[in-house]
Amino acid sequence: MDPHRDLAPCLIGSGTLAHPRDMLRALETIENLEYSFTVHGDIVSEGRAALVKLMADPESSTLVVNDCLFLNVLSFRYLDFEQLSEESWGFTLFGDGSTLRLVSLPETEDDAEDAKRPHLLLEETIPDFESIIVFDDEDDEE
């Protein structure tokens, strides 16, 4: 064991994330949120939304439509996160001259009912069709 290897960061309660994988992991913890989008210090848009898609895709945009947030972490350079209260977290994503501030909202009884609907939060990987997957069902052999 090499005792001199570089250690990965350990962030608890607050921190700054620049790697897209870390940004995805932090953001997948929220569902309903308040947002504020600022460009060069001016608020362009603010409101409430549900995070329905979270991705790291160089060809997709981040957008809010019909109270749904489709968030691409590759639209931003880095993310700051912090715990605001016992039930709320704040996330600020920084782009070139823009910021997207997200504040998680506590779950309500109505949200518990909505939880029954399907949610797709992460971009699914495209299967490699050149590989063959074989499932062995032991019951079929008997």
Give a written overview of the molecule.
This protein has helices spanning 20-27, 109-114, 138-141, and strands spanning 14-17, 32-39, 42-55, 63-65, 68-72, 78-83, 89-94, 98-104. The chain has 142 residues and is mainly beta. It has one domain. The model is unreliable at 116-137 (pLDDT under 50). 13% of the residues lie in helices and 37% in strands. The chain has an eight-stranded mixed beta sheet with strand order 1-6-7-8-2-3-5-4, covered by helices on one side. The protein is built from three helices and eight strands, in the order βαβββββββαα.
Short description:
Helix content is 13%, strand content 37%. The protein is mainly beta and 142 residues long. The protein has one domain (15-141).
* Dominant shape: globular
Counting helices, strands and paired strands, the structural category is mainly beta
Q: What is the CA-CA span between the terminal residues? A: 47 Å
How big is the Rg? 19 Å
Give a quick account of the main beta sheet: strands, pairing sense, barrel closure: 8 strands, mixed
What's the rounded overall pLDDT mean? 82
Q: Give the number of DSSP strands.
A: 8
The number of domains is: 1
| Order of neighbouring strands in the sheet with most strands | 1-6-7-8-2-3-5-4
The arrangement of helices and strands along the chain is EHEEEEEEEHH
Relative helix content? 10-25%
Please report which band the strand proportion falls in: under 5%, 5-15%, 15-25%, 25-35%, 35-45% or over 45%. Answer: 35-45%
Number of helices: 3
**Which segments are poorly predicted (pLDDT under 50) over 5 or more consecutive residues?**
116-137
